[in-house]
Each structure stands twice: as C-alpha cells, then as structure tokens.
Amino acid sequence: MNLVPPVVQTMIDDARRDPDTFWDRAARQLHWFRTWDRVFDDAASRPVASDSAFQPAFRWFAGGHTNLCYNALDHHVAHGRGDHTALIYFNERGEQRRFTYTSLLHDVERVAAALRALGIDKGDRVTVYMPTSPEAITLMLAIVRVGAIHSVVFAGFGARALSDRIVASGSRLVVTADVTYRKGKTVALKAIVDEAVQLAPNAVEHVVVLRREGPAEAGHDREIDWDSFLTRGDGHSAAHVEMEANEPAYILATSGTTAKPKLAVHTHGGYQVHIASMGRWCFGLKSSDVWWATSDIGWIVGHSYMIYAPLIAGCTTVAFEGALDHPGPEVNWRTAIEEFGVTGMFTSPTAVRMLMRYGEDTLTAVDHSRLERIVCAGEVLNPHAWDWLQNHVLGGRVPVLDHMWQTETGGPAFGNPYGVELMPIKPGSATIPLPGVEANVVTMTGEPCAPDEKGIMVLTRPFPGMTPALWGERERYQHDYWQKIPGVYYSGDSTYIDEDGYFWFCGRADEVIKIAAHRIGTIEVESAFITHPAVAECGVVGRPDDTRGEVISAFVVLKNGYAPSAELREALLRTVRKELGAVAVIGELNFVAMLPKTRSGKIMRRVLKAVVLDVDPGDITTIEDEGSVEEARQAWEELKGLRAQAQGPGAGQGKTSQA
Q1: What are the C-alpha distances in Å from 522 to residues 91, 101, 108, 512, 515?
Q2: 3 state SS for 416-449
Q3: Which label site among 7, 44, 312, 461 has the fewest CB atoms less than 10 Å from its CB?
C-alpha cells in the first residue's frame, strides 16, 4: 500500500525526475548575494581553495555567494525582525539569558572584530572547546561570518582527543571556558586545554579563555581572557564575507562509535539549503516557533538544529547547558515547555529512555498545551519509548516523530514529512527517504534487497547536505563512502524496507548478530527488552558461540524502583521470546546501572563487545561516563563467576537461554 500523501509524492517525483530544478527551487527560498552558475557539479578535478586539505568530490550551487551568519542574523534585522527573540539560554543551575536578533548580531560582530584582531581570516581554522553557552554560539556564528572555519570539540573530551583534533584541523586558535556545569558539579575545562596544547606545542598561536568561575589564573604566553579578546577587536572590521557556496563553513568529527573519528566538512551553500529545506519539510520549522534542541553544540544536531537552521528560519531557539534530568527529571523540561512556550522540540531516544527510567508518570504534570511536535534522532526510538512519550506523557495529542541522519548528511535524510503532510506513524521506523534524497537497501554486492530483507542502506546520489569531503583525507572519503559498494554512498547501517516503503534501521551493519542462519539487528533485540515495564535501556552485542556462530549478550538498565533478581531475569527472557521467537538466543543477561555511550547519546556497542571478548575497548575519549565501561565489565565478570560456581570445575562461558 502506498501511504505517501500525493503532495509528498509529487515532491519526490519532481526531485527524482529533475534534481537540479528541484534543488534550484529550494535554494531560492534563501537570500543569496549572487546566484549560482550551476546547481550541481560532480567534476572534482580541482580544489575549491588553495588548501589541499579540502578537495570536494562534488559541488552544489557553484558560483553562488552566501554566508551562513548573514542569513542567520543580518537578513532578519534588515527585514525588520531585529526585536524578535533569537536565543534563550538556560542551564541546570536555573540561570537564564535572552537575546534578540539585534542584540545577538551586535555580540557576534564584536567577536568577529576580535577574531580579525588576532589575524583570523578567511580559511583559518578555529577549535571551539566550550560548553553550550551564548558565548560559544556567538563565537561559532562570528567564525563563519569572517569566512574562517570552526571545529567544535565536545567540552569534555580528554586532552589527547582534543589535541589530535586541533592538529588534524590545523587550528591556529583555540577558544575555551574555565568550566562547564554538569549534574550539579563544576567541571574544569581549562586544564584539559592546557595539556592538549602541550601535546602539540607548535600548533596553536593563541588560546582565548572565558572565565566563568573565580579570578583568572596565571596562564601561558599565548593565553588571552575573553574580555581582553573582545577589547582587542575595537577598531577592526566586523563585516561579513561573501563566501562561494562550496567554501567550508565548519569541520566536525564524527562521534566515533566504531573507529577513528572522521573530520566531516560542511559548506556555506549546499549545507545551508539542506538544513533549511529539511527544517521546513521534516520539522515544519517556521519563524513563529520556539524551538528547543536538547543537544550540545559539540554534535551535528547542535550545529544544524540548535543554531543554524532555527536562526535561518527566524524563530526563537533554546539552548540548554547541563544534564537534562538535574536537579530533577521534570525541572528543565517544565522550564522550557511551560515558561518559554516551546512549540517544537528535537531530542534523542537516549534522553527519552533516561526520563522514562524515573517512572511512567514522569513529565505528565507538565502543561504541554503549546507544544506541537517532538522529533527524535540519534538512534532508533524504540516503540515502547515512543508509546510512553506520545501516548502516556502527551496524551496522543502531540506527534513524536523518529527520523534518521548522520553527521555526514548535515540534516535529515529519512523522516516523516510533518511540514508537508504527516504520514501514518509506524513506531520504530524512520518512515521514508525525504524529498530529494534517493536511497535503497542492497546487499554488499549491490543487489537490491526484497521487502523485509535486511541489507545495507545506501544513498544513490549526493544531495546538498551530504559532506563532499573529509578534511585532509581524500582517499579515506572515497574508500569509506563510495567504494565499499561501488557507485553508491555506503551508510554502514543495517536496514530493511517494508511492504509500504517504510525504512527500518536495525543498527550498524558491523553490529548485526548472526545466530545460526539468522541475522538479527541490535535495535530489534534492544526494543524487545524495552517492552518490559522494568527496563529503561538495553544494549546488546553478539558473542561467539561454537554451536550457533553467535549468541546475544545483553546489558540491561532497570527503571527506578526495580532491582535485579533471578525472577526478573527469567521474565525478561520470556518477554524477548514472545517478541522475537526462539531465533533470538540470549547467551547472558547482565544487569548494569549505566550503558557506555558517546556524549551524543549513542550506545557504544563496540565497548560492550570488547567487555564480552575481554579485549581492550580502544579509544573511548567520546564516552559520556568512563565508569560505564567498568560497570559492564564487573557485571560480565560476576556473571561468569556465578556460572562457574553453578556448573563446577571445567565449566565454559555458560549455557545459553533461548528467547
């Protein structure tokens, strides 16, 4: 059955028939200093700029001139909307700050002038190691305003990871804060930067420090405090630079759940067209919205849908610093929804499951009458978590919409086109490829998969938001994305398409569990566990098994009020058996207090795999809480010990349970 509304199908057909005309029309919704000569150019024989670190595989809107910052701020002020609230900042300590488009532009201009005073100009790279704060957002906008390139590193990465990213991007300047706020604690950042700079002593010319707590400490010769940095800008130009559409706006490392982070590049032109278009089509983003993305500036959601797309749309964007559930699970949610009047919200499945852990009635007392929709991305929104949020918390009135994208796509690639016409929601599905995105599910040899057959999701042609390059790694870009299955973009995601054309993402392809002749996605098993009312979160991996090839090793986090027990273990196994049948063989079930996750909220299943195999988990600098690794390891060791006692001398790793 075709569930795609006619108006959406028309957009899809138009884009498929004539993609250049389709994206030309989308791009003309934005302001341009100069329109383009060609919509799309896949000729990549020469770099856009003299810097050989950036050599795009394709170009969008070649010859067009624009600037991300200008369209986010100046354009609105010039059209009489300067008094509209642009940014609301709040944090877990209860502090709040508000900025109109005029006042935010004024602050951005001061920072732009200060950057120029330090010699930062077009093409220079600046590493931003700051918490989600007005100063950080102002800085990012100022960097792209002057034509420089920001590389934001999540404030919390270790010194080695930060140093590696500084060197890889070739940054001349690092900007940081002395502290950030997290779960009631003041977390030091400056010492991490000092160590990172020492690891690469010749890489950085200046370090600017925003002091939030206490007097300034004695620093090295390169150090400048934030106020002095701003003062240096007096008398320098704050003007925007007209950027050719394919010149880089920023570099952002992927979250690194599986391998060495890649430095994805996004440009002023194509990226801007994509995030603005998908903001309208997928999220219904409009100038009257109060929009809250619960992400961090260190991740792609923070870039695209906390800062750039909401401001380009002319709405009010809300930025939050701290832990969403501190000092309590309802406090920050209530502030944003009731006090600020949030109409649209972008959050992660991890955040939903974390709040659900506090109890079924968490958030039900909040007045959601002004909220119109919630969108989720980061991992699959499990059906049980979706049902809790949409039907229990929101009473079925507000749609909760899953969608899918990657750092490399800049913005949504799959979703429910809420801004055009809402499609029927299938919990657990990302719905369809959005207009202008051509996708398929294929085998590793490139053969199309049948309905409901798992394969690899591929993108069959570029679209404007797709990164055209990895910074300094041209060969890796071609190898990792375009050569694994020749002629198509390799996403690395295990996926299937149902009979209605809906796409279902089952986890990373290298995490699929192979039990006998069956292939089961990690998401499928985790979703089955979460249907039990005691389970808040679950992470699963495959463990080698002599008989079946692999069996499932599960790590389960319980909701508040539930405790591990043999009875609960058996109940969970019965639940998975009911959901998935006998094919899902559970090798062991480990109760843990937390799962290892990246700071963007993705479960680090490779770490769980390393725990099960008793090998080094490798680089865990992206992890939210290193204690989660030890927690998983202890649970695994305890389970092995219990089995050894129960089975006597000579017992192996333990018998399995069919679920």
Answers
A1: 34, 44, 44, 6, 12
A2: CCCCCCCCCCCCCCCEEECCCCCEEEECCCCCEC
A3: 7
The amino acid sitting at 473 is: E
Helix (H, G, I), strand (E, B) or coil at 373: strand
Structure confidence by residue, pLDDT tens digits, 199-252: 988 889 999 999 999 766 656 779 999 999 999 999 999 999 999 999 999 999
DSSP state letter for 450: P
pLDDT over threshold 80, residue 191? yes
Q: Which domains does the chain have, with CATH numbers?
A: 19-323+403-440 (3.40.50.12780), 524-658 (3.30.300.30)
Percent of the chain with pLDDT strictly greater than 70? 90
Pairing of strands 248-253, 149-152: parallel
Distance, in Å, from the CA atom of 346 to the CA atom of 412, rounded to the nearest integer, reads 12
d(CA 388, CA 559): 13
Cβ atoms of 268 and 247 within 8 Å: the answer is: yes
Which tokens hold the place of 475? 């060969």
497 or 359, higher pLDDT: 497
Tell me the per-residue pLDDT of 81-91, one tens digit each, with 9 for 90 and over: 999 999 999 99
Task: Provide the 8-state DSSP code for 392.
Answer: I
Secondary element (H or E) of residue 43: none
Q: Which two tokens stand for residue 124?
A: 């220079």
State how beta strands 85-91 and 149-152 pair: unpaired
Neighbours of 85 (CB within 10 A): 17
Q: Taking residues 326-354, what's their average pLDDT? A: 96
Torsional class of 549: left (φ above 0), alpha (ψ -120 to 50), beta (otherwise): left
Strand, helix or coil for residue 18 = coil
DSSP secondary structure string for all residues of 213-240: SSSPPP--TTEEEHHHHHHHTTTS----
CB 608 within 8 A of CB 632: yes
Nearest to 99 by CA among 53, 138, 132, 129: 138
DSSP 113-140: HHHHHTT--TT-EEEEE--SSHHHHHHH
Residue 221: the pLDDT is 79
Q: Decide if 401 contacts 434 (C-beta within 8 A).
A: no
Q: Which of the 8 DSSP states describes residue 453?
A: -
Q: Token digits for 397?
A: 């009135």
Asked whether 455 and 496 are in contact (CB, 8 A), the reply is yes
Joined tokens for residue 599: 């700071």
